[in-house]
Amino acid sequence: MTDPIFHMITGGPRPVAPFSHAVEADGWVILTGQMPTDPDAPDAPLPDGVAAQTVRVMENLEIVLKGVGLDLSHVVQMRAYLTEFERDYAVFNDTYQAFFPAGRRPARTTIGVTALAVGALVEIDCVARRPQGGAA
């Protein structure tokens, strides 16, 4: 096993806790859960509603992935956390699926939680795989 590489992405979302944006080992890239904060205005109010927050979270994941030379097509697994699971699950799914072509969606688990950092309605983390022969 190669030593892990701890990535902090320039221009990426401001961390809401002490963590790296992503950690990479042996071609696997594990992204920290992203919040619906705006990297250009991290103290601005969160977008209104789970659809808008899901879009912002996915855009933040794309920023981090781009920062390590990957994109959503490299994602193999995602975990989503919703504070209002029953109310927001269908809208979340409708919004989320637009980021992936049908037939090429990562494995996913969606979990209902009591609260998230910064008062968010949704948080998503993921695992990506660097193509064989790719380097950090």
Short overview:
The protein is α+β, with helices and mostly antiparallel strands and about 140 residues long.
Count of individual domains: 1
Distance between the termini: 14 Å
Quaternary state reads single chain
Named CATH topology: 60s Ribosomal Protein L30, Chain: A
β-sheet strand percentage? 25-35%
Q: How many individual β-strands? A: 6
> What class would the helix/strand composition place it in?
alpha+beta
The low-pLDDT segments are none
Radius of gyration: 15 Å
CATH architecture classification name: 2-Layer Sandwich
**How confident overall, as mean pLDDT?**
95
Helix content: 10-25%
The strands making up the biggest β-sheet line up spatially as 1-2-3-6-4-5
Count of helical regions? 2
Commentary on this structure:
The chain has 136 residues and is an alpha+beta fold. It has one domain (5-129): 60s Ribosomal Protein L30, Chain: A (2-Layer Sandwich), CATH 3.30.1330.40. The protein is 24% helix and 26% strand. It contains 2 helices and 6 strands; from the N terminus they run E-E-E-H-E-H-E-E. The protein has a 6-stranded mixed β-sheet. Helix 2 (85-97) links the parallel strand 4 and strand 5 (107-112). The radius of gyration is 15 Å and the shape is globular. The protein starts with a strand and ends in a 7-residue tail after the last strand. The mean pLDDT is 95.
